[in-house]
Design a protein that fits this description.
Radius of gyration: 18 Å
Number of helices: 10
Helix content: 40-55%
Structural class: alpha+beta
Strand content: 15-25%
Number of domains: 2
Largest sheet: 5 strands, mixed
CATH class of the largest domain: Alpha Beta
Distance between the termini: 35 Å
CATH architecture of the largest domain: 3-Layer(aba) Sandwich
Strand order of the largest sheet: 5-4-6-3-7
């Protein structure tokens, strides 16, 4: 999605926006680079908010302070998908859970990073369903999907958009309501597990940018969420849910999610 966003940003504010992919540690590596950059508007970040709402509470933590980040706008929400390979013998989440209950720690499930939203969702499901998976962490969703396609794991919990168009059956999602483009897929809540937790992604920058630069970027964010041609095309193709929040509301949501996730992460870490 970053490339579509970059094209629309270039049209809105002028100039050229170069996308540099920097996977690793649930986007913490990318966020760290942004936090340590000059606050001149020439270095921006666009990724899921994991470093700011969950990774900072893990044992490893993050190598910067959240106060070093200026949250410009939320652009998408990221429901978690429970996905399996196309030839999987598991046709529903209850089937997968029954197998995990009968043979603890033999079902290999991949996720990204110890503090990621998918890993939190997986941990909550284990506790509520009374099962134990063999959870394998990957550096990024691309590596995770490759492992699932290659038959190296039994299931995966990536973002819904990650499995879009890859022929991977989705057994459930972590959203409040069914995902618009996956209306035949039940939510965890529907299946009897009251787990509603979605990731979020947006545009952010080093704190302390000149006010006029910040204002132009915030205005561009709002315009792109409503009318961004490239961004909307990519969002539709990847089954991303565009969900705009301005800087104040997004920062508030970051704070709220962080406070909600902290005790969950501590409980999950203490159990391992």
């Amino acid at each position: 999605m970053a490339r579509g966003l970059a094209e629309d940003l270039a049209k809105s504010v002028g100039g050229t926006f170069i996308v540099i992919n920097k996977e690793g540690r649930n986007n913490t590596l990318a966020a760290t680079q942004v936090a340590r950059s000059n606050a001149d508007g020439y270095t921006l970040g666009f990724n899921a908010a994991g470093p700011f709402v969950s990774d900072l509470h893990t044992r490893e933590g993050i190598p910067f302070k959240v106060e070093q980040i200026d949250f410009l706008c939320q652009l998408v929400e990221l429901p978690v998908a429970f996905a399996v390979a196309a030839n999987s013998k598991y046709k529903s989440l209850p089937e997968l859970l029954r197998a995990a209950k009968s043979a603890p720690q033999t079902i290999n499930v991949g996720s990204v990073g110890a503090g990621s939203v998918p890993t939190l969702v997986l941990g909550l499901l284990e506790r509520q369903a009374g099962v134990k998976f063999n959870n394998i962490h990957y550096k990024g969703d691309g590596e995770l999907v490759t492992a699932l396609l290659g038959g190296h794991i039994d299931a995966a919990v990536p973002g819904v958009s990650t499995v879009a168009g890859k022929g991977l059956p989705v057994l459930a999602t972590s959203s409040e309501h069914r995902v618009p483009n996956l209306q035949d897929v039940p939510t965890l809540k529907e299946l009897g597990y009251p787990i509603v937790k979605v990731g979020m992604a947006g545009l952010y920058a080093p704190a302390g940018m000149p006010p006029e630069v910040r204002s132009r970027l915030v205005k561009a964010c709002s315009e792109i969420a409503s009318n961004g041609e490239k961004f909307k095309v990519v969002a539709a193709r990847l089954k991303q849910q565009i969900s705009f929040l301005g800087p104040d509301r997004w920062k508030q949501r970051i704070t709220e999610d962080s406070e909600e996730n902290k005790p969950i992460i501590k409980q999950l870490e203490s159990a391992h």
